[in-house]
Give the backbone structure.
Amino acid sequence: MNPGPKVVTYMFGNENLPITDTLIVGWVVVLLVIIFARYATRKLSMKPDSAQNAVELLIETIHEQIEPMLPGEGWKFLPFIATIFIYVGVSNLIGLIPIPGNVSPTGDLNTTLGLALMVFLLSNYHGMKEVGVWGYLKGFAEPVIFLLPINVIGELAKPISHSFRLFGNVVGGGIIITLIYQAVPWLIPVPLHAWFDLFVGLIQTLIFGMVAIAYISVAKS
């Protein structure tokens, strides 16, 4: 993991286009996920092979997280929520690959804020779709009109807290590892990476995904 993104400027015609290393790795993650999805689903069968078994287990696990919070709509929201889970999970874990310049895309606030904004827009869209635009907006003034400003501020704060939670934990882990390496470089590095990159990465993936489900569920209620 990297405490912060590095910016590289590329020339496109007469314009300078700044591109961060996290953006590049983020697109690599997208390509890896697409390639794996194509490979795992190219020969679907009633007698699944190991790849299909792994994908089915992953999808069923994610569906089991969605269904209790959105009863009867688990399969409806599965594509979006599964994409969030998989992208964030791979982004958190890609730092384990020892390649020069490899960084976690979720260590960039632009990435986490972009994901959080998608959750914010989708949850508000389905909230309006459920009770109508006026009914949804009227809910911010309940139970009393004086709570309107507080409820609006609370709603607008959701993508901020959602994004900063993931970003802060990823960057914080990277900073801790960097400080430990500088202080005691001989300290066993593998367990540290296993903790911060693997365990914490998976936990933060679960938290980010579950919060996304919760926001959609609350908006629809």
